Amino acid sequence: MARVAFVSSSPPLTSIRNLRRHFSISAAVNPKIPEMPQLYHSSLEVIGGGSDRFLPPLKDSLAKSYNAFPLVGFNRHVETIYAAFFRSVPAVRLRRECLRTKDNGSVALDWVAGDDTNLPPESPVLILLPGLTGGSQDSYVRHMLLRAQSKKWRCVVFNSRGCGDSPVTTPQFYSASFLGDIGEVIGYVGDKFPKANLYAAGWSLGGNILVNYLGQESHNCSLSAAVSLCNPFDLVIADEDFHKGFNNVYDKALSRSLRRIFSKHSLLFEDIGGEFNIPMVANADTVRDFDEGLTRVSFGFKSVDEYYSKSSSSKSIKNVRIPLLCIQAANDPIAPDRGIPRDDIKANPNCMLIVTPRGGHLGWVAGEEAPNGAPWTDSVVMEFLQYVESRETINGERFFEDVHQIQV
C-alpha cells in the first residue's frame, strides 16, 4: 500500500533559527520591515505546530470572515438542531459490505456505488467515521461523500457496530477508546487498494476514536493524513457540560438512540451476567447511564469516570505523527471549547487547529451553501486532504516524512 509521510516544506531547523535571528537583527535596525501577511481572517482561531505548512494552501478559504447564517447561527442550540433536522440529505447510492472482525463482531462499510468502475485503483481513499449512533444516513456524512466524490476520491463510511443498521453479532458494541475495529477497517481497506493513499475524517465521537487511533499507532499508522471535526477531546469535561441546562435535551436524544440500537440486539445480552446492568441500559435516560450499565463494563473500566478519562483523545494528540487537521466551533455545546488540547496541538509539528466563532455541534451553517447545503467545513477538509495528496518528491512518488524525525 502506498504510504504518505510528511516532508516539511520549511527549511531545516538550523536555517529557521538563522532566519529568525536575521529577522530579529534586521527588525532592530529597520523597524519598518513589513509583517508577514495574515493567512486567515481574524474571526478564526488558527494555531498548531503544523500551521506553517498546512495554512498556506487553505488561505483562500480561511481569508474570508466566518459568517454564520442569519436567524440560524445566532444561537448554538438553534444551529445544532437546525442542521440536524433541516440540512438536506443528498441522494447517494451506496454499496454495503459487512466486515467480520477478529472477535467475531461485525461492522458495515458503505462504499459509493460505481466507484470501482469509475475510479482507477490508485485513487485516494477517504474513510469516514460518523459520530455517536451516527452512520452513512446522516446529512453531514452524505455531503462529505459528495464533496470527495466530486474530487475523484474513493469514499467509504465506517458504520460502527449497531450504527447505520450495521449488524451486531456479539454482545459488544463500541466505545470512545476501542480501536480494534478501526484498525481492522483501515487494514482491510489498505489491502483492498494497495496502490492508494488512505485518509480518514471523523466527527464528534468518531473524531475522538480517530485521534486515539492516530496516537496509539503513532509509528505504524498507514493513514496519510486525517481530519477531526467537533471532537469532544476531553470526555470528562464533555460529560460535565452534558448535564447542564439545554444540553440535557441532547443527552436524552442520544440516550434514546442508544436504547433503540440496544433493543434491536438485546437478546445477545440476555444471559451475560457479571457487572452488566441490563435493566439500566434498557431504560437509560442519559448517555452516562448507558455507559455505566454497558460500555464501561464491556471494555474493562472500573467506573464511568475512569472510562471517560482514559478514553479522552486529548491525551493522544502529542503522539500523532501524520498530518492532522482539527476543526472545532467555539460555541459547540457537546464538544466544549475548554476541552481542546491547545498546548499539545501547538507543540506537535504535525497538527493544526481551526476554531470557528460559531457552528454549534455538527452545524457550521455558513458559507456558500447555507443554510441547507453542505457545512462550511467541507471545502476546508478537502483542500487540506488534497494538499497532502498532491505533495510529491523529485522521483514522482508521494512522500511525507514525519516532522518529528526531521527535528530530532
From TrEMBL:
<dbReference type="InterPro" id="IPR000073">
    <property type="entry name" value="AB_hydrolase_1"/>
</dbReference>
<dbReference type="InterPro" id="IPR000952">
    <property type="entry name" value="AB_hydrolase_4_CS"/>
</dbReference>
<dbReference type="InterPro" id="IPR029058">
    <property type="entry name" value="AB_hydrolase_fold"/>
</dbReference>
<keyword id="KW-0719">Serine esterase</keyword>
<feature type="domain" description="AB hydrolase-1">
    <location>
        <begin position="124"/>
        <end position="362"/>
    </location>
</feature>
<comment type="similarity">
    <text>Belongs to the AB hydrolase superfamily. AB hydrolase 4 family.</text>
</comment>
<feature type="active site" description="Charge relay system">
    <location>
        <position position="204"/>
    </location>
</feature>
<keyword id="KW-0378">Hydrolase</keyword>
<dbReference type="InterPro" id="IPR012020">
    <property type="entry name" value="ABHD4"/>
</dbReference>
<dbReference type="InterPro" id="IPR050960">
    <property type="entry name" value="AB_hydrolase_4_sf"/>
</dbReference>
<feature type="active site" description="Charge relay system">
    <location>
        <position position="332"/>
    </location>
</feature>
<protein>
    <submittedName>
        <fullName>Embryogenesis-associated protein EMB8</fullName>
    </submittedName>
</protein>
<dbReference type="Pfam" id="PF00561">
    <property type="entry name" value="Abhydrolase_1"/>
</dbReference>
<dbReference type="GO" id="GO:0052689">
    <property type="term" value="F:carboxylic ester hydrolase activity"/>
</dbReference>
<feature type="active site" description="Charge relay system">
    <location>
        <position position="361"/>
    </location>
</feature>
